[in-house]
Design goal:
By secondary structure, the chain is an alpha+beta fold. It has two domains: 21-215, Sandwich (Immunoglobulin-like); 216-253, no CATH class. It has seven helices and twelve strands. The protein has helices spanning 2-16, 113-116, 119-124, 129-133, 146-156, 217-227, 229-250, and strands spanning 23-28, 32-35, 42-51, 65-72, 75-86, 89-102, 105-109, 160-163, 168-169, 174-181, 188-198, 201-214. It has a six-stranded mixed sheet with strand order 2-12-11-4-7-8. It has a four-stranded antiparallel sheet with strand order 1-3-10-9, with no helix packed on it. β5 (75-86) and β6 (89-102) form a beta hairpin. α6 (217-227) crosses α7. It is globular and about 80 Å long.
């Protein structure tokens, strides 16, 4: 009897109490991306829906909505080197490491980020590049901007970017976008975090993950390089010597 009363009370609170914020349901077209010898990149579809709040069957009093999706690759250490002319030769004169930072960082949005939320809100939720990788305080004074150079290098490789009009609402609540993964995408676990905004306010965020892994002979070589680096190195040298000898025999006049 006590259990029935408790269940009734909970149901009454859900129906008559204040509505909870809207929630988002997000999903991916692929949970695993396999890299083999024929891999030239992958187009990943990210989609989802804004669900009604608990206790509120309609969305008529909410919105319009904005979506921001942040995709982060597995952590890595990036080293950026500054080169300066010395005696007529360009040499390394300084370097800076960015430890435990994403190997891949991409932002997709339904509108311009500055129109979706304030810079403080974006930075607090690590949506901007600067909030994740840091900024160079002395860059404005003529010092070398290591974080800016890192961003340029990652962008050149297709491993960093921002597309402020990539997320499209196919209905008032259903959204979809596509992410182009380059051929040189690092393997590992990726985090896709979707942020739901309305009128400049963050309502909810939803994380999902997917895995990028090598397959076939590439996976075997990668595992060998990590698990038995000395054997892998010796085998690589022997293979190179054998290939060179075989080539000299084949093309011997």
């Amino acid at each position: 009897m006590r259990g029935v009363v408790l269940a009734t009370a909970i149901a009454w609170l859900l129906l008559t109490g204040p509505a909870l914020p809207q929630r988002i349901i997000s999903a991916l077209s692929d949970q695993t991306i396999s890299i083999d010898s024929n891999f030239t990149g992958k187009k990943l579809t990210i989609f989802g829906n804004v669900e009604p709040a608990v206790g509120d069957p309609s969305l008529s009093n909410q919105g319009p909505y904005d979506i921001v999706i942040v995709v982060k690759g597995p952590p890595a250490t990036h080293t950026v080197r500054e080169k300066t002319p010395q005696l007529g030769i360009w040499l390394n004169s300084g370097s800076e490491g960015f430890a435990n930072t994403p190997s891949y960082f991409y932002v997709l949005a339904s509108n311009e980020l500055g129109k979706i939320a304030s810079a403080e809100t974006l930075a607090a939720n690590q949506i901007s590049f600067e909030s994740v990788f840091g900024t160079e305080a002395n860059a404005a004074n003529g010092a070398f901007d290591f974080s800016g150079e890192l961003r340029r290098l990652l962008s050149k490789k297709g491993l960093e970017g921002v597309d402020e009009h990539a997320v499209h609402f196919l209905s008032p609540t259903f959204y979809s976008t596509q992410l182009d993964m380059p051929a040189n995408v690092p393997s590992g676990l990726y985090l896709v975090k979707t942020f739901l905004f309305a009128n400049g306010n963050l309502i909810e965020d939803q994380p999902v993950v997917f895995n990028v892994r090598t397959a076939g002979i590439e996976r075997f070589l990668e595992n060998a390089a990590h698990e038995n680096p000395w054997i892998y190195g010796i085998a690589s040298v022997l293979l190179a010597l054998f290939t060179g000898w075989l080539g000299s025999v084949a093309f011997k006049r």
